[in-house]
Design brief:
By secondary structure, the chain is of the alpha/beta class. It contains 14 helices and 21 strands. About 30% of the residues lie in helices and about 25% in strands. Helix 1 runs antiparallel to helix 8, helix 2 runs parallel beside helix 8 and helix 8 packs across helix 13.
Length: about 550
């Protein structure tokens, strides 16, 4: 879960006319019952590949059946998701030699390091170090930080976020303050691997990263989970990691370079990568454990365009057993994301009651969102229903249980043709649609809808804001902060019988209408705006390339 709002993804074409069926009542009883059950101690926090997974996925199948769905994977309710756990051990310092003074950065406090490769040992010795600015190759923007520089076998040092992250508004080449995918650390590691880098190291800076070093340290140490696929990810860099900002400055000083000046140069088109004249070395062992998890898939087949799909998703997993608080050591994940699964079941019930649409509706509860969107990523890369025929989708990651709101907040504002098409549905509820207040945090890229967006399917991401009908922004913001501080990823994220589900029903009604429009208006086929980073992928997919 990436923030305390209801996440949605969907697509529809402008000006389309169709008959919108009446919306069946969203069952609050279903929302309460599913959430209460999945977040009970009996489900042990729903950690993938533990005995709790079997209980969790069996219960979701039971509710899908009762809702009237059919098995969604060629007669099966499940899609098997192979995973591999990599646990770095005996990590050496990350050393830089050949400069004015040697540097040795300690694991956890000064640097973190890991690998996507399924290999028992990583050993990088005397790798030439190159500063590649923001590490971006964006042909549609005429930008290539790797131009003229061969980094095969070298260690690249990369700045976090986009070159124009300090530009107010969205006026910059990379959307200014609003982070694009090029600003995300995931993209930077992917591009470094495509360029053949032996190691890719991101410089952590709290403001552009939008989170402190403590988050990096906790996320990048301990066992890391990845999809277990053919080739063992040997096409990836040998090592990926982060270094503290002060350590990066010390590295550049040792190399006789001005970190501030080079960082400024990297913000401008025409920047060229700079060899630092030093060499990097690091090594560590990997403990490898392979396992299998499951996505749960149900379908309401379409009547005339059954090969075209609209997708609803919500991740079923959470953290399992965690650090105890007041002797409670189970992270139950009642909001994150038992509530989303409850919404998924309630929507399935409503859509079945409304009858089949022209296009098929697929309902999928995915595994391992908490370990990096792995369940949704696996489906997107191994789809049961081709992405070229996937119209759009709706992703639910934490429902609103604090009451109805006057606002509807859109993440990824201005990326696709969908913004103006959602607005009439929002306004019909007497609400106002607004951009997310902190687009620089890259929230759009942190939940399961992004796995589909990354492969070209336009996704609309939005949900309840903080302007509560009862209490206004002050009360809504206080509730958000309270959840983040006191319950998010903690044992206190537990079911509360006093929750106000009216806000969830308000949003679920929107998502019912939006999904039904996508499924019934077969003349529409959405796309990204021409400037969006995913437009080319969608165009090639639709063209069958």
């Amino acid at each position: 879960m990436r923030r305390f709002v209801f996440l949605v993804a969907a697509a529809v074409a402008a000006g389309s006319a169709f008959a919108q069926p009446s919306t069946p009542a969203i069952s609050v009883d279903t929302l309460r019952d599913v959430d209460k059950t999945l977040s009970s101690d009996a489900f042990e926090g729903r950690k993938p590949t533990t005995p709790a997974e079997e209980k969790t996925t069996a219960y979701i199948v039971e509710r899908f059946k009762a809702a009237g769905l059919q098995p969604g994977n060629h007669g099966s309710w499940f899609q098997q998701v192979p995973m591999v756990e990599l646990d770095a051990r005996n990590v050496s310092p990350l050393t830089f030699t050949g400069g004015k003074a040697p540097l040795a950065l300690g694991y956890r406090d000064q640097m973190v390091i890991a690998t996507y490769r399924v290999t028992p040992r990583v050993d990088i010795r005397n790798s030439d170090v190159v500063f590649v600015g923001y590490g971006i190759d964006a042909p549609e923007k005429g930008w290539n930080d790797y131009a003229g520089m061969d980094v095969k076998g070298k260690t690249v040092v990369i700045l976090v976020n986009d070159p124009d992250w300090q530009t107010p508004g969205k006026d910059g080449l990379f959307d200014g303050k609003a982070m694009t995918y090029y600003g995300r650390w995931t993209y930077k590691f992917e591009e470094a691997a495509r360029q053949g880098a032996a190691a890719a190291i991101i410089v952590h800076d709290t403001e552009p990263a939008a989170y402190p070093w403590a988050v990096v340290r906790s996320s990048w140490t301990g066992a890391q989970v990845e999809l277990d696929e053919k080739g063992d990810h040997l096409d990836q860099s040998q090592a990926t990691g982060w270094i503290q900002l002060d350590q990066a400055k010390a590295l550049f000083a040792s190399a006789g370079k001005d970190f501030a000046a080079l960082s400024e140069a990297a913000k401008h088109k025409g920047f060229r990568a700079v060899p630092l004249g030093v060499k990097a070395s690091v090594s560590f062992d990997n403990a490898v454990r392979r396992s299998m998890s499951k996505n749960v898939i149900g379908i309401l087949p379409g009547t005339t365009k059954s090969d075209e799909t609209v997708m609803y998703t919500a991740h079923w997993d959470h953290l399992g057993h965690c650090d105890p608080v007041n002797a409670d050591g189970i992270c139950n994940g009642a909001l994150d994301n038992a509530s989303g699964v409850a919404g998924l079941v309630a929507l399935a019930e409503a859509q079945v009651k409304a009858g089949p649409a022209k296009r098929s509706m697929v309902f999928m509860s995915v595994t391992c969102e908490e370990c990096g969107l792995l369940g949704s990523r696996y489906y997107a890369e191994h789809p049961v229903y081709p992405l070229a025929k996937m119209v759009g989708g709706v992703n639910m990651d934490v429902l609103n249980v604090i009451g109805p709101t006057r606002d509807f907040v859109v993440s990824g504002w201005g990326k696709s043709e969908l913004d103006d098409l959602m607005r009439p549905l929002v306004e019909a509820q007497g609400r106002v649609m607004t951009p997310e207040p902190n687009p620089e945090r890259g929230g759009y890229f942190r939940s399961d809808h992004f796995s589909f967006a990354k492969l070209g399917v336009p996704m609309f991401d939005g949900g309840s804001g903080e302007d509560l009908v009862d209490g206004g922004v002050a009360k809504g913001h206080a509730a958000t902060l309270d959840y983040i501080a006191n319950r998010y990823h903690k044992p206190q994220d537990e079911y509360d019988p006093n929750w106000n589900w009216a806000g969830a029903v308000q949003d679920l009604t929107l998502y019912f209408q939006f999904g039904r429009r996508l499924a019934d208006d077969t003349s529409s086929w959405p796309n990204w705006y021409k400037t969006a980073e995913f437009r080319g992928i969608r165009d090639r997919s639709r063209a069958g390339q």
